[in-house]
Design goal:
Layout lengths: L5 H13 L9 H11 L5 H13 L4 H44 L3 H30 L4 H19 L5 H17 L4
Helix pairs in contact: 1-4, 3-4, 6-7
Length: 186
């Protein structure tokens, strides 16, 4: 894939960073639209692989994704530009909020804005779940769907109900995936 101009990378990831309320998971639909549909930097399958890799490596999903896509499209310079751009809005916003929030946190209007943003975050995370699930289950046989769904349900239950360590569960899921690969389920 030819290198993309650094300015386009910067502006794209700056835009993603500006609307990245709710953290990495909430930004998945926005990221997908920008890098798959609008810019064409990744295919749908590559995007789903990126989400899996970004989820299973240390650091925020958005930063991991920006670093990878930046590198993929424009090398080390692209990686630095995309990472700085995606972090810059949050950095500046938190800096401004930290200085003002202590004075206005109990204000009814400020609380109302924050409550509205919470609702948007739930919607974005739900959209991310559906986007990833659709992509993951596409072109799988019945045994593969069952295995993937069982792993997803086990990890969800482990985190949401049993309060187990998500990192340990991802490692366990990788081991189960390897065993299922050896057994030719995948």
């Amino acid at each position: 894939m030819p290198s993309q101009p650094l300015l386009e990378l910067f502006l794209t990831f700056l835009k993603i960073g500006v609307v990245m309320f709710g953290g990495g998971h909430a930004m998945i639909p926005i990221l997908r639209y920008e890098v798959v549909e609008r810019c064409g930097w990744l295919s749908e399958g590559e995007f789903l692989d990126l989400v899996a890799i970004a989820e299973s490596t240390p650091g925020p999903v958005a930063v991991n994704a920006a670093t990878y896509i930046g590198y993929r499209t424009a090398g080390v310079a692209g990686s630095v530009v995309a990472t700085v751009a995606v972090v810059l809005p949050a950095f500046l916003a938190i800096l401004a909020i930290a200085s003002a929030l202590t004075r206005f946190y109990e204000n009814y209007l400020v609380r109302s804005v924050l409550n509205g943003i919470r609702g948007a975050v739930v919607g974005l995370i739900t959209a991310a779940l559906l986007t990833v699930a659709r992509g993951v289950f596409t072109n799988l046989g019945l045994a593969q769907v069952a295995a993937t769904a069982a792993i997803a349900l086990a990890v969800f239950t482990g985190v949401a109900v049993a309060k187990l360590d998500p990192v340990a569960l991802v490692a366990l899921a990788a081991a189960v995936g390897l065993l299922l690969g050896i057994a030719r389920v995948w």
